[in-house]
Amino acid sequence: MASEHRPLGRLRTGLGRLARRLARTVPRPRRDHPADPGDDGGAAPSPDTAHNGHESRPGSGELAGGPRPPRGDAAADTRAAEAGAAVPGGAESGDRAGADGASAPSAAAAASEGESGSGGGRGRRLGRVLVRKGSQGTPPRLRPTPLGLFGITVAAMFLTLLLIQSVMGTFRTADPEGAGETPGPSPVATPPPGTARIMIAGDSIAQGSSGDYTWRYRLWNHLSKRSGLDVEFVGPRDGVFDVVAGEQGAAGYADSGFDTDHASRWGATVTDLAHGVGGQVARHDPHYLLFMAGINDFAHGASVDDALSAVRDAVTTARVAQSGVQVVIGELTPVWGSGSDQAINDRVARFNAALPGLADEMSGGRSPVAVARTASRFSPAEDTWDGTHPNARGELKIAAAFADALAGSLNLGGPYERPLPDVRTGPREAPEVSAEDGDAGVRLSWNQVAGATRYHVLQQRVRPDPDEQVRLPVEVSASREERRPSVVVDRLLAGATYEFVVQPFKGDDGGARSEPVRIAPDDDPPPAPEGVGPGPDGEALTWAEVPSATHYEVWRRPLRCALPDPPAASPSSGAGEGSPAQPGPGDRPAATAPPDSPTPTPECEPRDDEGPQRGGGWHSAAVVNGDTRWPIPDAGTSGWEFSVRAHRDFVRGGYSEPVTVEARE
């Protein structure tokens, strides 16, 4: 443990020697009795000063600008004092140099400091003090030289250093001379009696944003519920950051059932936190300080040394406010998708590698410093919602690392249970969706979900002809100006029934989906076509366009045809009515039509006066899209009845009146 005190001891010794040396330049009031040999005001040099007069190690009391001049002979100091040597320039405005002997000790000290090399001139210049004497009995006023002021400043620094050590505990610094020494046993941390107050200081990763649980929530649950500890989180803030509005103080936790107080701030650098952590520790008096920050420093181009130095400053400042605060420093987690991943992650890795040494250097018996391995097995592609900020999986890993550090190094609680549970990512709240049919399409709207940065809309036709659920090629971004995000879905088929589902996303993580909302858009049937009949050439059926129709259906049935009845024979005399004439003996047989006579033309007519809705024999012949004509097929010796029906998607319209088209000759 001696190596822990050696650098500070050297610094104290050197500063003490320098302070004593410079103090000799300040004149003392005249004594009425001879000075004791051991008095500091005497001419004898200090043993430390005499022994270390030619040291040049840092902290040995060496003045800036060159080595310290050698001391003069002690006898010369005594002779100068006895002679009452006046300080050069000591008389001003009619005052006598060295009046009443007030300046004699200072002159002796100056002579002893500067006799070698310049015949005592340098010592006299260093020790020159103007003593202005007033009226009788008035104490002299001192006007120290710049070197004297510097001595006073160094003495104040020396006292401040002693105060910091008494507050912070033992310093531990690297000492090349003690590199081979075996360090003493690490101090054993003891949890405080009663409630353990914990302050979490950090940047956005520690604060969290709307819709997050935050790793603070998961650590609090572990300590208070699983470990059964009485813990209190303290700090000046209690909210998260609203990522949509870009504002601090949002209350949109995924679960606010924990102690939400903290000292973290979105966008903060380590330097920012170091400036404020002392006052926060003084106000809230935590037993434990959990500190995790630095990624913003690297994003702004800071070096690893800059960030480590700022961490050291933050811990030092916290200790000045609370000497016994126990500290856990979290590693930085890597980033993904930032555009400069390699450069940032390289600095993150070097920063994390240096943390154990920094923690060991700063640890003291009253204020140990531990490191939480928050970067262990942390994958920014899987454990963040945007490549930087942790999602639910990342929160668990960070909280578990801090819990392990508290349990292992500081004896607070137990380690986090492994394996870590599988948790769902993305916004937990499902939106409530409403649908409204309009002229431009179906308008869907829903409530804002805490933490959601965008929304996906999914669609499925449930009847007729159900299809698969698909994501629409539209993405709705969250906006602070729009209280209810919305989207208009067009090109839906009339007469069909659809289901819509909205899913919120936070970054790349999808959350809880809404309940399906159903709607049958625009189911008014189109009117029946008019002007149905054969075209001018008689080869196609034509009709007038129906504006609301998307397609047409042609119905037909053949005409009913029959051959004409043959002419009736003349009745014979005497024959009964309705009985065929019987040839008598000698009568000639009846004449028959010659074999080459023409076949009689059948007579055709509609079967009834009903259309396809009520009449029989109708069937669908064709569906016509984008046209109002249809070629009539050859009907042989018969003809057709036609009716045309208008459709709008799945909505069936009216039938036209049937028309007859006879067979072409």
Low-pLDDT stretches: 1-16, 21-138, 165-186, 573-581, 584-588
Q: What is the makeup of the main sheet?
A: 5 strands, parallel
As laid out across the biggest beta sheet, the strand order is 4-3-7-8-9
Strand content: 15-25%
Distance between the termini: 123 Å
Structural class, judged by helices and strands? alpha+beta
Please count the helical segments: 14
- Report the strand count: 27
Percentage of helical residues?
25-40%
**Nearest-integer average pLDDT:** 76
Shape: rod-shaped
Radius of gyration: 52 Å
Description:
The protein has 665 residues and is an alpha+beta fold. Mean pLDDT is 76; it is low at 1-16, 21-138, 165-186, 573-581 and 584-588. The longest helix is centred in the N-terminal third of the chain and has 23 residues, at 146-168. Helix content is 26%, strand content 20%. The strands form 8 sheets. A 5-stranded parallel sheet has the order 4-3-7-8-9, with helices on both faces. Strands 12, 13, 15, 16 and 17 form a 5-stranded antiparallel sheet that branches. The chain is rod-shaped and about 150 Å long.
Question: Which terms summarize this structure?
Answer:
single chain, 665 residues, alpha+beta, five-stranded parallel beta sheet, 14 helices, 27 strands, rod-shaped
What topology does this entry show?
Elements: H1 2-23, H2 47-51, H3 74-82, H4 104-114, H5 121-126, E1 130-132, E2 141-143, H6 146-168, E3 196-202, H7 204-207, H8 215-226, E4 231-234, E5 240-242, E6 247-250, H9 270-284, E7 288-292, H10 295-299, H11 304-321, E8 326-330, H12 341-362, E9 369-372, H13 380-383, H14 392-409, E10 433-438, E11 441-446, E12 454-463, E13 470-477, E14 486-489, E15 497-506, E16 509-510, E17 517-519, E18 533-534, E19 540-542, E20 551-558, E21 560-562, E22 603-605, E23 619-625, E24 629-631, E25 640-648, E26 651-655, E27 659-661
Parallel strand pairs: 3-4, 3-7, 7-8, 8-9
Antiparallel strand pairs: 1-2, 5-6, 10-11, 11-14, 12-13, 12-15, 15-16, 15-17, 18-19, 19-24, 20-23, 20-25, 21-22, 25-26, 25-27
Helix pairs in contact: 1-6, 3-4, 8-14, 9-11, 11-12
